[in-house]
Amino acid sequence: RANQIVDLKALMGDPSDNIPGVKGVGSKTAAKLIQEFDSLEKIYEKSYSGAKVKLGCRLYIFEREIYHTQI
Q1: What is the crossing angle of helices 2-12 and 40-50, to 10°?
Q2: DSSP string covering 10-69, please?
Q3: pLDDT of residue 54
Q4: Which of 54-58, 62-66, 67-71 ranks highest by mean pLDDT?
Q5: Rounded to the nearest 10 degrees, what angle do helices 2-12 and 27-37 cross at?
């Protein structure tokens, strides 16, 4: 879906569009997260409680930057 492309780019970043993405999250991890949770909002709802600690911390740190790319 089109809205998932935006979420995917927000997670993995896109240098050509100056989107920073989440450190350590590439295309495979981003696609897996989108496939599992369907959207960034759902990823955040679940990530703090269910994700691996390292990934959960990265998502928490970059949350504001990720949402900034969707504006």
Answers
A1: 50
A2: HHH-BGGGTB---TT--HHHHHHHHHHHSSHHHHHHHHHHHS-HHHHHHHHHHHHHHHHH
A3: 67
A4: 54-58
A5: 140
Cα distance between residue 6 and residue 69, in whole Å: 8
pLDDT of residue 24: 83
Comparing CA positions, the residue from 36, 39, 35 lying closest to residue 10 is: 39
Q: What pLDDT sits at residue 28?
A: 93
Tokens representing residue 12 in the block: 């993995």
The pLDDT value given to residue 1: 77
- Whose structure tokens read 């960034």? 40
For 70, which DSSP code? T
Q: Which two tokens stand for residue 51?
A: 């994700």
